[in-house]
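> forwarded from #structure-qc
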């Protein structure tokens, strides 16, 4: 384990670290919003064509990286919030799973387009990403909607992100098994190596980019997903094969 990882692991275990994470994230959020707000405002001005190609490119890059940083800070803040939640804190209500999955799929796809601001890759991801949702129309689950939405969007975003196929097909399946409800997200992307399957739920763990071709992010998404599932008394399983793709299945008991 690298020294950096050890420091992070020690820090994230203490109450002081929780406070520090929250403080640092909040302090970063304000200046970042200002940077992004101004760069967006300048970019959206009608006089944009007056910029030299270099200035236009520089502004786009400032905006792209600023948005990326904001997303990272938001994830850190959300991680901090969810880490400190207990089952009694959940705002549970009946949620229609098909509608929720559709909304999350829209968000996951538009997020992907934002990441790829290069015109050629944006076109590919726009045309080439399909999220198919297979769920009974009336299937409901009693859960915290914000948290369940995070779980679904994170699994879909990962399915898109760790996938370098020109055409990305993601299949989301929701099913009622009587005493439990399952939600699975399947991709045909890079897959997870057997030695990494358990590690990917650990804080800050990311498989090296040589294998997945992607290292953006914190390595916190699945840690948050696991915590959300635990808070709902559920479980998660992973079936994966290198090069063939991955199926993440979350199961929730029917109360
Ligand atoms: N659908 C997937 N296919 C292949 N690898 C995945 C998939 N989902 C997650 N992973 C691996 O698990 C790691 C941890 O995922 P996550 O916690 O969401 O962090 P992040 O998305 O910030 O890298 C990723 O870095 C990646 O290596
Ligand atoms: Mg992720």
């Amino acid at each position: 384990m690298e020294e950096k990882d050890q420091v992070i692991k020690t820090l994230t275990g203490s109450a002081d670290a929780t406070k520090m994470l929250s403080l640092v994230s909040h302090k970063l959020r304000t200046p970042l919003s200002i940077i992004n707000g101004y760069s967006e405002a300048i970019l959206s001005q009608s006089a944009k064509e007056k910029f030299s190609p270099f200035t236009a490119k520089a502004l786009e890059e400032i905006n792209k990286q600023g948005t990326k940083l904001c997303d990272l800070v938001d994830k850190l803040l959300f991680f901090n919030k969810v880490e400190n939640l207990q089952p009694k804190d959940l705002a549970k209500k009946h949620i229609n799973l098909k509608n929720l999955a559709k909304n999350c799929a829209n968000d996951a796809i538009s997020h992907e387009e934002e990441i790829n601001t290069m015109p050629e890759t944006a076109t590919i991801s726009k045309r080439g990403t399909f999220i198919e949702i297979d769920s009974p129309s009336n299937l409901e689950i009693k859960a915290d909607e914000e948290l369940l939405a995070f779980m679904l969007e994170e699994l879909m975003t990962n399915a898109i992100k760790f996938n370098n196929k020109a055409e990305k097909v993601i299949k989301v399946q929701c099913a009622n098994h009587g005493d439990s409800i399952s939600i699975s997200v399947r991709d045909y992307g890079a897959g997870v190596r057997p030695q990494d399957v358990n590690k990917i739920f650990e804080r800050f763990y990311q498989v090296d980019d040589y294998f997945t071709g992607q290292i953006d992010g914190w390595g916190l998404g699945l840690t948050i997903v696991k915590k959300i599932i635990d808070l709902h008394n559920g479980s998660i399983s992973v079936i994966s094969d290198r090069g063939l793709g991955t199926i993440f299945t979350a199961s929730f008991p029917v109360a």
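QC bot note: Confidence is low (pLDDT under 50) at residues 114-125. The two ends are 41 Å apart (CA to CA).
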